[in-house]
Write a structure and sequence with these properties.
Layout (H helix, E strand, L loop, with lengths): L1 H41 L5 E4 L2 E7 L2 E12 L4 E11 L4 E8 L5 E8 L10 H4 L33 H19 L10 E4 L8
Antiparallel strand pairs: 1-3, 1-7, 2-3, 3-4, 4-5, 5-6
Length: about 200
């Protein structure tokens, strides 16, 4: 019996490792595609050139957090600003936001990359703060931190989801701070073209 159970465990472990190996590439490719589309969405532009990502570390509430900055230019080389990945703790777990800023630090757009918020409540953050919605933050600058109206701020919180709303705005505020703290030479690395269609190298 022991030998049989050991054999089954070994075989199953091998199968799981093999399946993981097969799916690793497609999952990574899907994540890259999601990120590329996210950058285009938050920068409100399809034909853009994105510099290699730059990590900015900041101490927040006694913890060292890492933010990923994607400096963005148009096809003519004009600075469009940056897309910034920022993660905070929401109601149900990590809340990862990608926020687009113009060179002055005004919010161009945002998208949720990951979240574990309650379906139908906290999950509404994906739309609640978009342009034209109740909590609209598009066109605003977090130079003065954005906060919910319940805390004396200027942004309407998601109905029945104040914790998620606070976490979301905290992620946006921290993304802004990381963007403003980006080293002046951060965009000196190699760049990549992000287009609707892939171009062949010649």
């Amino acid at each position: 019996m022991l030998l049989v159970l050991t054999g089954v465990a070994v075989v199953m472990g091998g199968i799981l490792a093999y399946v993981n190996h097969l799916t690793e590439g497609p999952i990574a490719e899907q994540k890259k595609l999601t990120l590329d589309n996210g950058i285009k969405t938050v920068m409100v532009s399809d034909n853009i050139v994105v510099a290699d990502p730059v990590e900015v570390k900041q101490n927040v509430d006694g913890k060292e957090l890492t933010y990923i900055i994607y400096q963005v230019k148009d096809a003519q080389g004009q600075d469009l600003g940056a897309a910034v990945e920022s993660t905070t703790m929401g109601f149900g777990g990590d809340l990862k936001v990608l926020v687009g800023f113009n060179p002055e630090g005004t919010i161009l757009g945002y998208t949720l990359l990951e979240h574990a918020e309650t379906p139908g409540l906290g999950a509404k953050a994906d739309l609640w703060f978009q342009k034209g919605q109740k909590g609209d933050i598009i066109g605003k600058s977090p130079a003065e931190p954005l906060t919910v109206s319940k805390d004396g701020g200027q942004v309407d919180a998601i109905t029945a989801s104040t914790i998620t709303s606070r976490a979301f705005l905290k992620a946006v505020n921290q993304a802004y701070n990381a963007y403003k703290a980006t080293p002046a030479d951060a965009e000196s690395g190699a760049t990549k073209q992000v287009n609707e269609e892939k171009e062949d190298n010649v």
